[in-house]
Each structure stands twice: as structure tokens, then as C-alpha cells.
Amino acid sequence: MKKLSLIVAALGFFAAAAHAEPATYSVDPSHTFASWEIAHFNTSTNRGRFNKTTGSVTLDKAAKTGSLDVTVDTTSLDTGTAAFTKHISSDEMLNVAAFPAAHLVASKFVFNGDKVSEIDGNLTLMGKTNPVVLKATNFNCYMSPMVKREVCGGDFDMMITRSQFGVSYGLNYGFPDTMRVVIQVEAVKQ
């Protein structure tokens, strides 16, 4: 009888899991940043990050689907050096006065087992939208002891061709057209 009860309970659990609803997660701005890096005359690597990011992620673990809508405040650029930040923010590069936000939207999530391994979407930067592929170098969900809710996130890498977005400064000096963008994200289940 006890064995039968366990089997019925297990079947009920799996039936409930199979009919799980998609969950919505809000981006945690204190754990979510977009950073970039680009070679500097093939000698060192220039890096910077954007300190303000907002958005949401919808994840259906049972169906292995998801979507995201994330906005990066480009005026929050921080390179660690005021003069360099000002130069990157200028109309020669990102023109953050005219384009104060970058927007990432995706509706195709690729899973490897129960973990997100890739996200395909579109990035809008400087008024131009192009497809991008974000590769998960880390993905995990956990019960946060701080907020007492599930948190999902990871590190997501993508390579972009900056001239496709109108950022061509330095190409004639030999700076590469491709650059690496990493988005570290944690999002809290709502």
C-alpha cells in the first residue's frame, strides 16, 4: 500500500511538472551587467561595462522555451577612465545622447538538458537592429536565501560586428570590426 501511494504521488508530481506554466523573471539590476571588450592595436584589450540594465525573462522549463526583453542604458557606460568613457559615449562611437538605450529581444531559447545553452534574438543599437546569438557559458537556477524566490541566470557571450550597428570608429586604424559582448544576468521569479 505504501509503495502504491509513492507511485501515485510520483505520477502526480510528473503530471504537474509536464503542465508547468511559463514563469516570468525580472532582471536583478544589482547582478546584471553588459560588458564589452575589443582588441587595442593587437596589444591589449579595451573593456567597459554598462551599469544599468532592466528587463524580464520568461522561461518554461518543461516546454524548453523562453523569451527575453532587456534594455541596457548606454548612458551608464563605465570604462574606469573618465576620458575614455566620454570618448566611447561621444557621437564618434556610441552617440549615447542620441541613442540612450540598447535593446535585446529574443524568443528562441536552445536547451542542453535542463539548462539554457543558447539564445537567438535581435539587438538594437544606435537605431539599427541585427540578429545575434548569445552562447551560455554558465546557466543555473537556485532558491535565493536572500529574496526567498527562485533566481535564474548565467553568463552569455556574443560576438557582434560593430559596423553593422554604425560603430565604425577606428576601423581605418586597424581596430577589429568584431567585438565580444558578455551579459551577466540574474533574474528573480515573479
UniProtKB/TrEMBL annotation:
Keywords: Signal. Pfam families: YceI. Residues 24-188 form the Lipid/polyisoprenoid-binding YceI-like domain. Residues 1-20 form the signal peptide. It comes from the Bacteria. The keyword Zinc does not apply. PANTHER family: PERIPLASMIC PROTEIN (PTHR34406:SF2), PROTEIN YCEI (PTHR34406). This is YceI family protein. It comes from Scleromatobacter humisilvae.
